[in-house]
Amino acid sequence: MGKALQNEAMNIDVQTMIENKRKKKSVSGKLEKLIPAFLFLCAAVSVLTTAGILFTLLRESITFFSTTSIVDFYTGTQWSPWTGHFGVLPLITGTLLITLIAAIVAIPLGLMSAIFLSEYASDRTRKIIKPTLEVLAGIPTVVYGFFALTFVTPLLKNIVPGLGIFNALSAGIVVGIMIIPMIASLSEDAMNSVPNSLREGALALGATRLEVAMKVVLPAAFSGIVASIVLAVSRAIGETMIVVIAAGASPTLTFDPTRSIQTLTAFIVQGATGDTTFGSTIYYSIYAVGATLFVFTLLMNMLSQYISRKFKEEY
Amino acid sequence: MSGIDEKNNLKRIRGRVILNNVLKGLFFVSTTIGLIFLALLLYRILTQGIGYLNSDFITSFPAPYPEEAGIFAGLIGSIMMIAIVAPVAITLGVGTAIFLEEYAYKNRWTKFIQINIQNLAGVPSIVYGLLGLTFFVYMLRLGYTLLAGGLTMALLVLPVIVVAAQEAIRSVPSDIKEASYGMGASKWQTIRRVILPAAIPGILTGTILALSRAIGETAPLIIVGAATALYTLPDSLLSKYTVMPIQIFNWTGRPQEEWQFVAAAGILVLLIVLLFMNAVAVFIRNKFQKRY
Amino acid sequence: MNTLLKQKKVDNKTSVKPDIKENNQTKSEAAMDKNVFEVNNLNLWYGNDQALYEINMNVPQNKVTAIIGPSGCGKSTYLKTLNRMVEMVPIVKTSGSIQYNGEDIFSDKHSVEGLRTKVGMVFQKPNPFPKSIYDNIAYGPRIHGVKKKAVLDQIVEKSLRDAAIWDEVKDRLDENAFGLSGGQQQRVCIARALAIEPDVILMDEPTSALDPISTLKVEELVQELKKKYSIIIVTHNMQQAARISDKTAFFLNGELIEFADTDHLFSNPTDKRTEDYISGRFG
């Protein structure tokens, strides 16, 4: 009763206004019902992208394998599409060689950076070094390729005799540098999430920082570290521009890092930019190579996810 | 009494401490290697490129002689490409994030979409190029056009934007959502008036980082047919186009040393654009630092 | 696609506990006064865990009704059921009926949004939006379609006055509400709830995060507000319930043990468990 009086005095009744608006608003209300459907369609695009990738790679690869034997493809040791030799092993070893060199560079450097940042550096140092290191991850790969070709290779020539202008060593090292921030940053996150109480427990027993890092923190953060390495390696497998520019285009079945090689990714670029015509065998071979690459990286990514999910540390 | 040999133990402790200090030094040096590499790279490119970096370089089309070559077509092409990538990828990415965070029931399907997005983020960029080649260039008959390139790049950066937007939306505290629902606001009203405004700094920061990745990407655009030399600007979505990284790649491949300087100058322009975008991202992050 | 969308279900499970608690006070009150809420045989589950058992309770109009009980007794859950905020947790199921002014709140005829415009809520922790004070208050009217600046101005001033905070904030309406003290924030939140002139205001331990002086201000405010609104307040503080409420309900382990006039309940509880609780023997 008191309320009615008050409302008259103010001469605005919000609830009445709301009631009136509600009756009028039914149209926009109906539009609102469409929003979830629209958002669902947005989410569907990413699923369709995956489906599209699978469909594309599968369809063109199947066409390719209808003229070239899949067994010859995966066991052949000669890759020279323009003379009709489709043995993918040289491309795979080329990719593995680059990945191996990159891993040799990036895993120790990345891990040691992570240990330094997480266990030794002061907060201030970490706040400066970590983002700076991450800048490395933001530099376009074409820039790395340029740097590998015009700086790293000439530099290495002074040390390694007989190094070609295009070689796996230089490209591999630079790919390794590129993935350092990935390993360092993600491993540091994993080590950082190890609770301080564990460290204090060990320090109180007289352990040195090093012993704490090696015997307490590394084991506790192990799965996160492994996941970061797997992810970084997968990134190295899929890296394209650095190897296209610095490793050359000579598919050779070799593990000699001083020689020019060709990776899976580099062939895709070569195949797509040459005089390849739509529908030719070479055109389809690009997709067979792409499918091989996709399977490699997908397996690595799933492995990384599996590791970080399965061995999620519980503190 | 305690079984610890005092004298020997002291010795051992000293050894352990020395080992600790030696390895600490090693770890520090390892950390600096990445930084030294970065410094070398920037220094080298700066000294190589600065001589060719002038206003003519920025406003000129490609030319047969190094002194006359310019990055104008690539710069404008990159900007036009971002003008396609940004609206497509932001709409799809933020839409997906809202769906997953606010509408989707946490069941197997949602988990499937989530894992799928994670995996997409790990697909090599060149595979996106193959998707774009088959789907946009040939199946939709877009040809080697700006639109085909832009859509390919939009799909490439989509997972990054989804993940950033999801994190931003998730970090909006649930008590202000409850406040909104408690006043009789509908789900969409709450999203539009409360959740999105609070999440927008995070979304923007992530988006800018994703777009700077799109600006630096080369490989997929080679596959979907960006032109290496272009003497006109694109005048429609269905024009031929080039972008900065493609031009740089092209210059890098030429044997004469002068072209290296041209490439370095191109890299400088590219890095300046990226630096600018990252500065904007940092500015946004600091300006809208979380207040709850 | 439907499988992907959250679905909120109200199941009509058959009641688990048939012993309905009759309460003499409740019955006689119901006969005399008008009730805003009539709750009958309310059961509630979070998944398979039952949180509320056979609640029967009539909430009188223009009174302050306090709900007390130890932590985890279901008092907050019960409060949030009254404006269906409890359904924010997707696995919630309920049975029984809640009538608001004679209409079933779970019926499909009425929207949740409609119910919540009539039944406002103030939360445990002050939760202003990260917007200006003005925009906080204008939020409710705006989402319900009130757009005219002049009208909004009037609503904002009136709501802030009613929440006894106008004088403190009138010169800084454009400032972010986060800049206010906790007590001021909570009164802004009350003003925000008042802005759409609901009939009922649900308060979920509104002073638990506040200092004593701010608590006192909110308590005084509640006394003032009951002239115009029906107020249901959950509190962990028995003195507070005794000070400000007209009727008090005691919850224990998801059951309504006793519901009576506040004076009566505190001075002469009928149930042994109520007596134990108010004399501090558990909780």
Automatic annotation (TrEMBL), chain A:
The keyword NAD does not apply. It comes from the Bacteria. One of its GO terms (molecular function) is phosphate transmembrane transporter activity. It is a multi-pass membrane protein. Coiled coil: none annotated. One of its GO terms (cellular component) is plasma membrane. One of its GO terms (biological process) is phosphate ion transport. PROSITE patterns: ABC_TM1. The chain crosses the membrane at residues 34-58, 88-112, 133-156, 162-184, 216-237, 282-303. Its main location: membrane. It is found in: Cell membrane; Membrane. It holds the Pfam family BPD_transp_1. Keywords: Cell membrane, Membrane, Phosphate transport, Transmembrane, Transmembrane helix, Transport. Residues 92-304 form the ABC transmembrane type-1 domain. Part of the binding-protein-dependent transport system for phosphate; probably responsible for the translocation of the substrate across the membrane. Belongs to the binding-protein-dependent transport system permease family. CysTW subfamily. This is Phosphate transport system permease protein.
From TrEMBL, chain B:
It is found in: Cell membrane. The chain crosses the membrane at residues 21-46, 71-100, 120-140, 146-169, 190-211, 259-284. Residues 75-280 form the ABC transmembrane type-1 domain. Keywords: Cell membrane, Membrane, Transmembrane, Transmembrane helix, Transport. One of its GO terms (molecular function) is phosphate transmembrane transporter activity. It is a multi-pass membrane protein. Pfam families: BPD_transp_1 (PF00528). GO terms for cellular component: plasma membrane. Belongs to the binding-protein-dependent transport system permease family. CysTW subfamily. This is Phosphate transport system permease protein PstA. It comes from Thalassobacillus cyri. The lineage of its organism: Bacteria, Bacillati, Bacillota, Bacilli, Bacillales.
From TrEMBL, chain C:
GO terms for biological process: phosphate ion transmembrane transport. It is a peripheral membrane protein. SMART domains: AAA. Residues 37-278 form the ABC transporter domain. InterPro entries: AAA+_ATPase, ABC_transporter-like_ATP-bd, ABC_transporter-like_CS, P-loop_NTPase, PstB-like. GO terms for molecular function: ATP binding; ATP hydrolysis activity; phosphate transmembrane transporter activity. The keyword Cell division does not apply. Pfam families: ABC_tran. One of its GO terms (cellular component) is plasma membrane. It is found in: Cell inner membrane. Part of the ABC transporter complex PstSACB involved in phosphate import. Responsible for energy coupling to the transport system. This is Phosphate transport system ATP-binding protein. The lineage of its organism: Bacteria, Bacillati, Bacillota, Bacilli, Bacillales.
